[in-house]
Amino acid sequence: MKSFHCNHCQQLVFFESVSCVHCGHTLAFLPDRRVMGALEQQSDTWVYRTGDTQAYYCLCVNYQHNNICNWAVPSGDDHEACLSCRLTQLTPELAEEGHRQAWFRLETAKRRLVYTLQQLRLPLLSKQADAEHGLAFQFLAEGPERPVLTGHANGLITINIAEADDAVREQRRANLQEAYRTLLGHFRHESGHYYWDRLVANTEQLAGFRALFGDEQQDYSAALQRHYEQGAPADWQSQFISAYASSHPWEDWAESWAHYLHMIDVTETAVACGLTLQPRHPNEPLLDPDPKLMRRRDFQEVMDTWFAVTYVLNNLNRSLGQQDAYPFVLSAPAIEKLRFVHQAVEKD
Predict the structure, then answer these.
(1) How far, CA to CA in Å, does 348 sit from each of 43, 114, 264?
(2) Which tens digit of pLDDT belongs to each residue from 237-248?
């Protein structure tokens, strides 16, 4: 994520901001310009001014009426919803207690996913635009006789809204003995299944995938059942990025994909903030990133930056008495899988 500033007063603002704390202007993310724009209202439209030019926008319908979104839609667009909200096919029943807050958190995480997918220039169409190959999300609440499993099927990603509750999600993380479980992580992981279908299945990439990840034709349901009954192999860290990745090649890919998106977003943020590390000892992580890094995305440079940034993140978290922000150790095979993901993205 790059740094954003109010174009009216140059105050630092954030991707989730809805108003500038310095000048008071309404803010919205403008997907066509990839900036947070300070907007001025003119009747039913909003004006974005920069230099000698101006452009007109409408606020996303979920910005105007639900306070769920903070994106804008260019005037003349046929859609009332922004690019991100268009991907949401089904929302939870808002009359139920806590559901509106859950929807807000889900959409906030999804917008970060969409930002990164756009940054990587990946194909991103809604099922409204392409019923066969498009992407859609549904956010469901489970009931006594209606369990909801977070997952992906044919371009439709389902998220159990309970995952938006920090306490519930942490309890599930502990019960499953996971090192890491976040709402954004769910979105990134499930999007990996969608992009496996788009970037790997039935392409020349498939042979390379099977050489690294294994044969995805093995019974998926049986593999997951075996994983939950028997757990991961004792030596899973020598081959996989997480214990869950060892369950099936599709999950190995999805976990690697999610980690790759973590890396891209975090390293871009570090570069945008001008973060540097100049240690006293030559064997400690050095970070002096080239601002052009995120435009050319050389894999080894991304990895070098990633290792340095996670070194800082984990040490800062420990200083606050918190668990490591990135509680993973990347083995050589796991790094090669990340390289494969990188190459699949760049090839597209």
Answers:
(1) 42, 17, 16
(2) 999 999 999 999
